[in-house]
Design brief:
Blueprint (H helix, E strand, L loop, with lengths): L6 H18 L13 H10 L5 H14 L3 H5 L3 H8 L5 H17 L9 H4 L7 H12 L8 H9 L10 H9 L7 H14 L23
Helix pairs in contact: 2-6, 2-8, 5-6
Length: 219
């Protein structure tokens, strides 16, 4: 179905999907509890790779008591940091990245999180997914966070061609369909949808707010 849609029809359906999600999830909030602190979201974004947001939130309750800001993390011993984030997985690499990115934030950016994709990608451990999360949540810029929920659901909805699985492919496709001012919140709402209705297994289609808009393409 989705492949036969014209670009105009797909744009119209994408707008309807955005509206339906806004109605169902009026409060589009980041699942990571970073209390508005840009550096904390940087840290949590890095820890979230191959780890659940719930686990990251729990781990960071202790982590941020020991290392409350970029200055503290920048002077930390990576091996010691690793002890606090062990349960997040890949803890040695993540610990090195957290210390190095915090140090770079202080030394290169005077403690201020950069507000461009190009600059954010220079921070150790930061890829496009984390950079888009930071741009959208901190600076309220257009940003598509192509995480696993976004990739799976956008393909199932037919917004992204089924053969496109790479995060950057999905990001580009959605940027062309979702209004710039809606992109960041759209991604937060998609995460909620992916947890409550459109799971990788065991979909709950009957009560899904996108039931009448979804072609239910198998992925």
């Amino acid at each position: 179905m989705a492949r036969q849609e014209s670009k105009k029809a797909k744009l119209s359906r994408a707008a309807a999907i955005v509206d339906a999600l806004k109605t169902y999830y009026p409060n589009a909030e980041c699942a990571l509890r970073y209390d508005g602190d840009p550096w904390r979201l940087l840290v949590m974004g890095r820890l979230s790779a191959q780890c659940t947001d719930a686990r990251v939130n729990t781990v960071c309750e202790t982590l941020f008591k020991v290392y409350p800001n970029a200055e503290a993390m920048a002077t930390a011993d990576a091996e010691e940091v690793g002890k606090y984030i062990f349960s997040c997985g890949l803890y040695k690499t993540k610990a090195r990245d957290l210390v190095a990115s915090s140090r770079m934030l202080i030394d290169v950016f005077a403690g201020v999180l950069p507000d461009t994709m190009e600059a954010l990608l220079t921070l150790p451990g930061v890829g496009r997914k984390i950079a888009n999360l930071l741009l959208g949540d901190i600076y309220h810029k257009p940003a598509i966070v192509a995480d696993t929920h976004c990739i799976r659901i956008s393909r199932r909805l037919g917004l992204v061609d089924k053969e496109k699985k790479a995060p950057e492919q999905v990001e580009r496709a959605l940027v062309s369909l979702i209004a710039p001012e809606e992109q960041s919140d759209f991604c937060h709402r998609i995460v909620l949808l992916g947890r409550q209705h459109c799971m990788a297994r065991g979909n709950v289609c009957e009560s899904c707010p996108l039931n009448t808009l979804c072609p239910k393409i198998p992925v």
